Amino acid sequence: MDMNVKQQETDENSMPPPQIYVERTLALIKPDALHKAEEIEDIILRCGFYIVQKRKIHLIPEQCSDFYSEQYGKMFFPTLTAFMSSGAIIALILARHNAISYWKELMGPSNSLKAKETHPDCLRALYGTDDLRNAVHGSNCFTSAEREIGFIFPEAVIEPIPIGQAAIDYLNLFVNPTLLAGLTELCKQKPDDPYTWLADWLIKNNPNRPNVQMSS
After folding, report:
1. CATH classification at residue 176
2. Strands (E), 71-152
3. What is the domain count for the chain?
4. Which CATH number goes with the domain that contains 57?
5. Do residues 92 and 196 both lie within one domain?
6. In which domain, by residue range, is 185 found?
7. pTM (2 decimals)?
8. Minimal CA–CA distance to 149: which of 215, 55, 35?
9. Residues near 83 by Cβ (< 8 Å), separated by ≥ 6?
10. Are 115 and 189 within one domain?
């Protein structure tokens, strides 16, 4: 075998596996579109998104101010916080490849009136009425998604987990205890097919499994 081929194979075998994760973003169904939430969620699922977590909540004005802190100082800020605290909203963590950009595309332009002209099939054109009551919200970038998901879902794990202390904390908090419990139960049960049994047990007892929570 050619030495260059051998060296190439050695290099490939020594390379660390690629980091693979499914991007997540935050989606809000605003008070004006709450009565159409089921329709909107159906469109979301049909467009290839996976709903990781879901909550129905009613934010107070102070919470809305904190959530939209990046908009603080703009003329529409008081009106925005008053509107977003005027009724319940549906919050969703959405996951798929390039979730942030695909969700922004599905929402369409922020002004629903313009969206009806330029993107008639987007959610804001279908369910919004103006630039404020535009039916849905989405994170603008990964940093915003990380902050907004953490605001609405404090227990959520945001991928990718950076290498370092955060990864160690994640292993100690979620992976190791779950795996230890599964292996302990495996020793007790002694199933005929331990691999399949453990795989099924881990799926059933996944601490980060989707959690649909409807709260007032």
Report:
1. 1.20.890
2. 89-95, 136-138
3. 2
4. 3.30.70.141
5. no
6. 165-209
7. 0.67
8. 55
9. 30, 31, 32, 132, 133
10. no
Both structure tokens of 174: 């979620």
Distances (CA, A) of 47 to 5, 27, 55, 112: 44, 14, 20, 20
Q: Which amino acid is at 56?
A: K
Asked if residue 30 and residue 121 are part of one domain, the reply reads: yes
CA distances (Å), 202 to each of 11, 99, 189, 205, in order? Answer: 33, 26, 14, 5
- Find tokens 């292996």 and name the residue: 183
Per residue in 122-152, pLDDT (tens digit) is 999 999 999 889 999 999 998 899 899 999 9
| Bridge partners of residue 56, in order along the sequence | 90, 214
Same domain, 115 and 196: no
Residues with active-site annotation = 137
Answer yes or no: are the C-beta atoms of 161 and 170 closer than 8 Å: yes
* 195 inside domain: yes
